[in-house]
Amino acid sequence: MKLVSWNVNGIRAVASKNAFAWVDVFKPDILCLQEIKAEAHQIPEPLFNHTFTCKHVNAASKKGYSGTMSFSTIDFKKTDTAHSIDHTHEGRILEHHFGDVVLFNVYFPNGQQSEERLAHKMKFYSDFLAHTEALRAEGNSIIICGDVNTAHRTIDLKNPKANEETSGFLPIERAWIDSLLEHGYIDTFRHIHGDIKDAYSWWSYRFGARERNVGWRIDYVFISKELEPRLKDAFILASVEGSDHCPVGIELEL
Q1: Can you give the pLDDT at residue 254?
Q2: Interhelix angle for 171-182 vs 115-137, to 10°?
Q3: Structure confidence by residue, pLDDT tens digits, 58-74
Q4: pLDDT grade, residue 76 (50/70/90)?
Q5: Binding-site residues for Mg(2+), please?
Q6: What SS3 class is residue 52?
Q7: Are 110 and 116 in contact (CB under 8 A)?
Q8: Which end of the chain is more exposed for a tag (fewer CB within 10 A), N or C?
C-alpha cells in the first residue's frame, strides 16, 4: 500500500495549476490532503485520472479555511471527524478504520498567531495522543499522517538557531513529538533514512526559499510500533510543486 499525504494550501489553487498530474504517475492507494480550504461541492472535478473508490471531506465551518480530504482505493469500514478533539470545527481530522488499522489524516493547528493559538495547538496535541492511545488499547494499529506544524529536531529545519523562539520549533512543541515517539510511534522517514540532512517538506514563499532549499520538515507519517515490520519505505516527494508543502508518504505491507 502506498500512502501519500500533502498539505495543498488550497485545493482549488493547486487544481488550477494542474499540480495533481503526479498522482496519475505515482498511483497511491491512499491520498490524504490537508488545508483544502474548500467545502465538498467546491472541489474541482476531475483532479486526476487515477481511480479512487472512496472520497471523504471534512470541511471547516469557516469558509475557505483549513479542512482535510482523503481519497482511497481501500474501502474504509468507518470514517469519523473526531470533533471531541477538533471541537472548534476546523475540519482538521479524518479518522479512517480498515481492518485492525486506524488511519488519521490530520492538519494540526499552527501556533504562531498568538499565545491563545499556541495553547490551542498544545491542547489539540494532548487530546489527539490520548485518543490514539485509547484506540491502541482496543487493539488497533495507528497511522498518523499530515501537517504536524512542528519540526522535531535541529536537522529538520535549515536554520534551527534562528527559530528557537518561533512556534513550530519551540521546546514544548518538539517535546510533544518526543512524547509521541516515547509512546511507541515511529517517525517513518527517520526510521528509513536516519539522520539525512536537508530533507524538508515546507518552504516559505518568500526569498526564494524553495529554490535555495531553506525549508522545514513539518509533514510526517507516524506509525505505531507494531506496524514496523510492515514498513517498506518512506519518502518525501520534493519535486512535486503547486503548494508551499510537498507530499510525503510511506509504503506499507497490509
Answers
A1: 86
A2: 0
A3: 999 999 999 999 999 99
A4: very high
A5: 7, 35, 147, 149, 244-245
A6: coil
A7: no
A8: C
